[in-house]
Amino acid sequence: MEWKLDRTSKEPLFRQIARSFEKRIQSGELPPGAPLPPERKLAEELGVNRSTITAAYEELRASGLTQSVQGSGTCVSDHLWGVSPRRLPNWHQYTNGGSFLPTLPLSKRIREASADPRVINLARGQLSSDLFPEEALSDLLKSTPLTASLSYPDPKGDEIFRHTLSAHLQKHYGIEAAPEEILVVSGAQQALHLLTQCILSPGDAVAIEGPSYAYSLPLFISAGLRLFRIPLDEQGLLPDEVMSLYQKHKIRMVFANPTYQNPTGTTLSLARRKRLLQICEELRIPIVEDDAYGSLTLHGSQAPPPALMKLNQGGGSVIYLGSLSKTAAPGLRIGWVAGPRSVIERLADAKQQMDFGTSIVVQRLVESYLSSGQWERHLQRIRKELTIRRDVMLQALDQYVGDQVKWNMPEGSYHIWCRLRNAIPDREVLETGIQNRVLFLPGEIYGAERGYIRLTYAGVSESEIEEGITRFERTLQTVKNSAQI
Ligand SMILES: Cc1ncc(COP(=O)(O)O)c(C=O)c1O
After folding, report:
1. Ligand 1: lining residues by beta carbon, under 6 Å
2. Which domains are assigned to the chain?
């Protein structure tokens, strides 16, 4: 290489050296992984101080063009294959920053496999499209007037819609919440995000069910929260564990999904609900009750105990989350938070900063859907259909994998939580399933120990359920055979 250091230039020598390497890297002359000369040797060659070379290399490293490898000096960064000769921002460095942690590789793998239409998807936590109220919503969309205005919405939510939600909560859950105590959000997930940003701080300890709703975990971790698990049995979480977690870790909040818990399907008994409330009141810590599935009782099962929010009426210890994602369609992105007025005000203020409020068009549409009684009729239909699908899945499990798997009998909602008799590593069972073209969720996603999986019957037809479970049986057989080789 021919060095042309211009000692008369105002540009410092180290920057001239860095720029020269930059050109060679971007032109492809120095490919990814190529070593740069050792600092001492280059300093001698150029007749400059070693510190000048150190500064030049530091500049290259900071721009992401080079990396240091322990024991081998500096080389061109590995991720620069196909790099454009233009001076682009170092997107690699940018995209590895930010406050949201990237999705875990296991979740990415599941997302990728979900896109394959040949795969029977027993992982997706939503209704199949034939169970979405598409026709009713399309008709309402045509007839719903957008009279008020299409200006920025009230960040708390449209007033008429909040009145309807107040009546909805009263009628279906016995919950008394005035319109001012309700916030409309873009799904329960946004409510969780707002809560982590507004009422918690990095380092705070939160008690969650173990295992817990999968998408709450990365959100909480990204917010810098410390998570502690409350063990569960068939009657839901063990409330007294909250007390011992509090003593050890100074818990600041309990997050629970007491009815038809995702993923275990368990429902917290009335006695435990009362005990949990008693403990949290004593410790003066709030409970966030996620009730995404509460109205999905399957036929032949008793209604669940009242929501914690109802049991705590007037007590002010519970923040209640609801959503239309599981009983209508997740694409609507409509959920709500009911809680103490001060909390709702704080969350609404943050929502204003975050997105200026949920789309007024969707709020009006959903308002008509709820107030016309169509949601209730739809709920009857999906509860019936979900009962059929659950029974088909239970029957197929019994027939094909009864000797290898244990499961619970869900009384509501979408999922069956299974324990494999042989605790196969999650990665292995997932990959073998994908090879056999069936997808399910391994327990690791929920923070469970090895040997658990969640199967969902809501998103597939009866015939797909049956075929899916035969593929699941083949998966377990393949894993067993390869272990014996
Ligand atoms: C327990 C639980 N809470 C919240 C959500 C998120 O719901 P939404 O679509 O309303 O954001 C889900 C979705 O799977 C869930 O299972």
Report:
1. 125, 187-189, 213, 257, 262, 290, 292, 323, 325, 330, 335
2. 13-95 (1.10.10.10), 105-127+377-484 (3.90.1150.10), 133-372 (3.40.640.10)
